[in-house]
Amino acid sequence: MLCFVIVSLLGVCTKYISASEDFPSLISANASLAIVLDKEFLAEEYAETLESIKEYMKELTREQLKHGGVNVHYYSWTSISLKTELSAVVSIASCDGTRQLLASTRAQRVALMSATTADCPRLPPPGAVAIPLMDPGQELPQLVLDMRTAKIVDWKSAVIIHDDSLSRDMISRVVTAMTVETEDKSVSPIAITVFKMKHETDALLRKQEIEKTISKFRPQFNGENYCVIASTDAMTSVMEVAKEHNMVHPKAQWLYFVSDTNSKHDNMTMFSETLGEGENIAIVYNLTVDNDNCKRGFICQSKELLKGFVLALEKAIIDEMEVAAQVSDEEWEAIRPTKQERSSSLVQQVQSYLETYSICNNCTSWRMRSADTWGSSFQKNNSSLSKINLLQVGYWRPVDGLRLVDQMFPHISHGFRGRRLPVLAYHNPPWADLTFNDTGYITEHKGLVFDIMNELSINLNFSYFIVSTSFMIEDNNTMDDSSDISSDLFKKMMQEEIIKIIEKRGILLAASAFTITEDRKTRVNFTMPISIQPHAFLVSRPRELSRALLFMSPFASDTWLCLGFSVILMGPALYMVHRLSPFYDVSKKKRGGLSTLHHCLWYMYGALLQQGGMYLPEADSGRLVVGTWWLVVLVVVTTYCGNLVAFLTFPRQEAPITTLRELLQHGATITWSLRKDTYLDDCLKETDQQKYKDLYSGAILNTGETSESIMKVRDGTHAIIDWKINLQYIMKTQFLKNDKCDYALSFFSALLILVIEWWCRRKRNKLDNSAVKPFTN
Predict the structure, then answer these.
(1) 3-state SS, residue 551
(2) CATH topology of domain 137-293+365-415
(3) Average pLDDT for residues 160-177, to the nearest whole number?
(4) What sign does the dihedral 151-155-156-161 (CA atoms) show?
(5) What was the pLDDT predicted at 12?
(6) CATH topology for the 27-130+294-347 domain
(7) Mind giving me the DSSP string for 409-421?
């Protein structure tokens, strides 16, 4: 029990000690404020500023602070040692001095509110706020810096285009704002390339100057992020020239700063007429009010900061008194705000006051708009969505900084922004499998391309509905689905009609399997290939050869012929050596059975069969001939036995047909067929190579494979040329039907080369024709 009491007392003491180390409650003690006026920064204005702020602070506390008090400490430099009981610091100092104060206030968890110079990064929340002050017309670098530090423009590299209406100092400050390193390491400097153009008043000369400037770009080196700082008329010309050079597309981001606008001239709707589908364009334009009633300056801004602080302090005192009246003293000490929470709350209250009531330096403001272009061309059922609009993204003021209600480039962050878009498809399983009801409308769609469409819709933030090609084509009166044509020709015509509809921008995209040709590449954009299908030909599987003369297989015919001649030649050779040997004349021995020619022949033959013979020569010369022959026999017999075992183990197969040349060589015994009205058919028609001409002239053109042609393939008298996937389907069907694999595929790599050559030749012909008649995309 004693231990428990001691532990409890230690816990209470620790709680009170930690509370006492924090600054006192606003109920029990006055708040403490430090006002820092950097004498070196203010120079000659220091005395006047100090006197004005002292008088204003006395008046402010007397009129606005009703439930408490504030102790004010004045300092004339930023290198000060902050007291623990301080509640906030209000300063007028340079950017470096403000950063020095920030380090001190962070260590002491004190709120910092500062009026500072232009081109100074905003102080990071919570617990700090900085208001950069600048002369009218000098706010562009600060605006760019605020956009970069807020990660509104998160670029790695960018191209700046400006006209000569901006001074060199202003451009230098803008470049510095984009490249300077900040305390936030996640904000990387932007690699900048700057291009300058002359400001021409004549529209034709201005366009020529912009054309000259843009022609210097190399997007692969400079990137696809562009920042244009120019007047209103120059901005319109830049938009037109950039489109002509195909530099405006969904991957590019164009940020325009229009500097010659003001509160009386802020109509940006004229630019919406030049916007097109898929463009990422944002416009930041000036809405500054230029009159003599605008208040600005460090004294004005510091007075607003002080008033905002006093009002926030008064509200904090009232809130603490209300909460403290409802709980005990011990509970209040446990739940009252910490020093960090108090600082953050005071800064938030000051920012809210400035946003609502500030009048200093608020004649200067810029507004931001972004083009809502993705999918707008296909919203025909909704006139408000089908029109390309400029969205109100936000605004900027020196006192507030950036205030955004949407993304600067909304399509980069949100894709199509949830639009419902039409997608064109036709029944072409397994790629696109459509189910229709009695009225001809699509009730279900499935297949590989729709699986891809579902992933695209999730990643690009849109939904889609399927439009059948039958309705689209009937509307265009170009084709009748019920016409008596082959399926391949129908697919080709269907794909051609779909491409025409896309060219007219009547549909977003087509979800189907297309054959890509060079002609089509110049008309529409294709996705990356989801399947590359080579051509092949289907032939009979090689069969096992007969074993009737298997014993002859180890040697070829010329080998057997050479063996026969060797036996015939070695017999007379042995006979001549034996007969002419002087050994028998000297030794008076009989020559034996080898003295006749037929005995020598039988001996050589018997030795070949490893049977030996009844007679052997006694002379060394005859023995040398016989020994040599036995060595030959040993090699021949060993080789024969080894090959015979191999042929018995692995039966011989027919020579397979694996290449186009082999297929043509078997033209006397094998026929072949291919489907007409396909792209392979067109390719072979236009070829100028003889072997492909022979292939096409000998081919049987049909509209599809029949059971009769498949049976001919199995019998080894026919070959079918088609896509590899179609032939694999035939093989699978026949295997499930017969439970046997009677077919083989031969890869048609030569035809792939032919198709490539055909495309290249057609492309060259188009380029040659374009020299006479310009080609337009």
Answers:
(1) helix
(2) Rossmann fold (3.40.50)
(3) 88
(4) negative
(5) 39
(6) Rossmann fold (3.40.50)
(7) SHHHHHTTTTEEE
Residue type at 387? K
Q: In 3D, which of 45, 33, 146, 27 has the Cα closest to residue 83?
A: 33
Out of 70-74, 361-365, 748-752, the most confident range is: 70-74
Q: Token pair for residue 180?
A: 């300077």
Task: Report the predicted TM-score, pTM, of the whole model to 2 decimal places.
Answer: 0.71
Q: What is the pLDDT of residues 672-700, one digit of tens each?
A: 998 888 878 888 887 888 888 888 888 88
Peptide bond into 651 cis (omega under 30): no
Among residues 184, 183, 185, 167, the alpha carbon closest in space to that of 175 is found at 167
How large is the angle between the packed helices 557-580 and 597-608, nearest 10 degrees? 140
**Which two three-digit tokens encode residue 57?**
């602070």
Query: What letter represents residue 33's amino acid?
Result: L
pLDDT for residue 92: 92
* Structure tokens given for 218: 């190399």
User: What is the pLDDT, as a whole number, of residue 379?
Assistant: 66
Cα 562 to Cα 639: distance, rounded to the nearest angstrom: 15
E strand intervals along 637-703 = 671-675, 699-702
Tell me whether strands 442-446 and 433-436 are parallel, antiparallel or unpaired: antiparallel
The H or E element containing residue 567 is: helix 557-580
- Mean pLDDT for the stretch of residues 380-409: 78
Is residue 130 within 8 A of residue 116, CB to CB? The reply is yes
Q: What percent of the chain has pLDDT over 70?
A: 86
Query: What is the share, in percent, of the chain residues with pLDDT greater than 90?
Result: 10
Are 653 and 544 in contact by the 8 Å Cβ rule? The answer is yes
| Cα angle 103, 107, 111; round to 5 | 80
* Per-residue pLDDT at 500 exceeds 90: no
Residue whose pair of structure tokens reads 């074993």 in the numeric block: 547
Spell out the domain ranges in the chain.
27-130+294-347, 137-293+365-415, 419-532, 550-649, 660-770
CA distance 195 to 212: 11
Q: What is the DSSP letter of 66?
A: -
How far CA 386 is from CA of 239, 276, 279, 378, in Å, comes to: 21, 12, 15, 7
Q: How far apart are CA 561 and CA 585, in angstroms?
A: 38
- Give the pair of three-digit tokens for residue 681: 């058919």
Distance CA 485, CA 480 (A): 10
- Segment 573-614, tens digit of pLDDT: 888 888 888 887 777 676 677 778 888 888 888 888 877 777
Listed residue (215, 221, 222, 282) closest to 254, CA to CA? 282
Tell me the CATH class for 419-532. Answer: alpha beta
What confidence tier does 380 reach under pLDDT thresholds 50, 70, 90? low
- Asked if 357 contacts 312 with a C-beta cutoff of 8 angstroms, the reply is no
Nearest Cα to 543, choosing from 651, 410, 633, 669?
A: 651
Lowest mean pLDDT among 399-413, 736-750, 756-770: 756-770
| Average pLDDT, rounded, for the chain | 81
Structure tokens of 234? 């120059």
648 sits in the region (left: phi over 0; alpha: psi -120 to 50; else beta) called: alpha
Which CATH number, 3.30.70, 1.10.1660, 3.40.190, 3.30.1890, labels domain 660-770?
Answer: 3.40.190
Average pLDDT value for residue range 299-321: 89
Over 70: is that where the pLDDT of 245 sits?
Answer: yes
